Amino acid sequence: MELLNKKPQSLVDMKMHYCPGCGHGIVHRLVAECMDELGIRERTVGVAPVGCAVFADSYFNCDMIQGPHGRGPAIATGIKRSKPECIVFSYQGDGDLASIGMGETVHSAARSENITIIFINNAIYGMTGGQMAPTTLVGQKATTCPSGRNPKVNGFPIKICELLAPLEGAVYLERTSVYNAPNVIKTKKAVKQAFQNQIDGKGFSLVEVLSMCPTNWGMTPLESAKFVAEKMLPVYPLGIFRSPEKEGGAN
Amino acid sequence: MGEKILMKGNEALAEGAVRAGCRFFSGYPITPQNEVPEYMSWRLPEVGGTFIQAESEVAAINMIYGAAATGIRCMTSSSSPGISLKQEGISYCAGADLPFFFANVVRGGPGLGNIAASQGDYYQSVRGGGHGDYRTIVLAPNSVDEMGNFPKKCYELAEKYRMPAMILADGILGQMMEPVEFKFETVDPKSLKEKGWELGVDNGRGKRIVRSYDLREGELEKINLRRMEKYQEIEAREVLYETRNCQDADLVIVAYGTSSRIVSAAMKMARDKGFKAGLFRPITLWPFPSQALSQMAKKVRNFLVVEMSMGQFVQDVRLAINGQAVVDLYARPAGIPASEEVFAEIEKVYKEIKTAGPVKKAAATPQLRSVQAPAPKTKPAAKKQVKKRKVKVSKKAVKTKPAKPPKARPVKRSTPNVKRTKAAKKKGGRK
Ligand SMILES: Cc1ncc(C[n+]2csc(CCOP(=O)(O)OP(=O)(O)O)c2C)c(N)n1
Ligand code: SF4
């Protein structure tokens, strides 16, 4: 019998704590598969965030550090500049990357730090129980905007890829999703490219992954996937916003 | 080694760190420490190191968190408001048991305060500073020479105990020029041993994790208790202080950093007048030289604390002396005392010793006299209030039974001490 698929070596063989239908687990696997395929596991150092992915430091089978909320890019900078031979990635949620850590995000991109950022945009704060995120959609309900996000009171969602695209230092920016199989495959391709850029010394790469949070959206996993497709995609269009070949501007 | 170089304190600090093997600096400009990042920006590349001007203090300290996790000798520096911003990161480093070195060139506060020298960050430095139960090793230089030589000590202590170590300086020490003699061999980072916990290339050793949390029930407490044991070991082993003219002194002035230099001059004036005044200068502010002070209090009846803060430092001195002697305070919270002012204080203490006598004074006002100079023009009502509060504090202090009275408490010195000792004896708690 031929073994067609097995657990990536870059993942520790343990049960993850993520809710059913959550996108974090899928993206973990994709990141691990890319590490395996690129043969970089032994020299990769990952930065786990504060948020639902805090335990990523247990899940990835490479050196890991868990950092303060939002500071992943700064920590990754410190590691990469101290040990340039390492491949350094930071894994962050939207509250983490687009709110408290906005400064670190923008400036690590501006400096074109040769790091890889995996950015999970689930439009909500997962771990703390469903508060509004900077990426929460207009009209979307959250525990701190119970009648739906009202731009007059809560402002507008932040589109990270579009925001970073004009920065000269942002070498690779792509938005993907994991709501269905074809997009999962595209996400893997993007993650691999983001790591490859680092291996090639090209500079700052970020993959924004539109993901599901059934628990805090109050939906079933299926409804969540539908929500991404129908509600998130129009606000957060998928595609490459910047790449080493293609500089600047959304497609 | 051996050569004397004229340098600014901030430059000496930076050069000292580089010679001690520092190869990574991240920081954000703030007066009066700007010479540190400026110096590092050209000096570190010269030795193959990295300098980053971070976008904020928050980013700077987190770059350090990452760098320290790779085992490299790294450093950040800032001044008061910037250190406040760095506290979360420092707490993370303490929680993850990461060694690194940082310097606070203190300015006046709270808030934006001013850019003059101050010692107002004493509590923040020696009590942890950030959230959670932790300590930071704190060294307080009082010369440019020490600014240059202490970074090496900080790295050694930080690495020995896997925790943050800091230099607490101030604007004067940062800005003044003096000769420095680097009294240690320049450290080649390649000569440093592997630590066994640093992140990097795996090479088959298996995965390593650096984290500051443990959510398993009871585990965090265990970790914190282990850390506490480590802190106790440091308190027993790593205390540094300097004494001058204390052998025959009947008044010991306690001061650290810049104020200890001012006190030095005042002490000379006092000695010229025939007053037997000495100087006790803690060099490590944490671990605090409590035992040495306590021992001294068995022989010396009067202490005078001089600090450029609002009575923060005096608290550690009083805790150490624990009612065995009189501790007066001369506090300049955002002011720099002249040695003449300190000398005037010394004279005052001597006058009181003569008129009231040490026994009575210790009995009536063990913690009373706090002097701020120049005396603020306060309304009489406000003055009254202040006095009232002070008396309250002193009564309370007299009544409270200390958890662990020092062994050879001089019973004869004052009535409150006698009472306290008797009470302690009754309960059999005198150990
Ligand atoms: C300094 C600080 N502020 C706030 C928090 C509390 N906190 C923990 S997770 C989180 C939000 C995480 O949301 P996100 O980054 O979107 O990740 P998700 O949980 O959705 O995956 C917050 C606010 C914290 N731990 N530290
Ligand atoms: S709360 Fe949301 S983001 Fe967090 S694990 Fe559950 S589904 Fe995923």
From TrEMBL, chain A:
The keyword Chaperone does not apply. Keywords: Oxidoreductase. Pfam families: TPP_enzyme_C. Residues 56-209 form the Thiamine pyrophosphate enzyme TPP-binding domain. This is 2-oxoglutarate oxidoreductase. GO terms for biological process: cellular respiration. Coiled coil: none annotated. The keyword Cytoplasm does not apply. GO terms for molecular function: oxidoreductase activity, acting on the aldehyde or oxo group of donors, iron-sulfur protein as acceptor; thiamine pyrophosphate binding. InterPro entries: 2-oxoacid:Fd_oxidoreductase, THDP-binding, TPP_enzyme_TPP-bd.
TrEMBL record, chain B:
GO terms for molecular function: oxidoreductase activity. Keywords: Oxidoreductase. The keyword Oxidoreductase applies. Residues 361-431 are annotated as: Disordered. Pfam families: PFOR_II (PF17147), POR_N (PF01855). Gene3D superfamilies: 3.40.50.920, 3.40.50.970. InterPro entries: 2-oxoacid_oxidoreductase (IPR052368), PFOR_II (IPR033412), Pyrv_Fd/Flavodoxin_OxRdtase_N (IPR002880), THDP-binding (IPR029061), Transketo_C/PFOR_II (IPR009014). It comes from the Bacteria. This is 3-methyl-2-oxobutanoate dehydrogenase subunit VorB. Residues 15-191 form the Pyruvate flavodoxin/ferredoxin oxidoreductase pyrimidine binding domain. Residues 249-335 form the Pyruvate:ferredoxin oxidoreductase core domain. Residues 380-412, 419-431 have a biased composition (Basic residues).
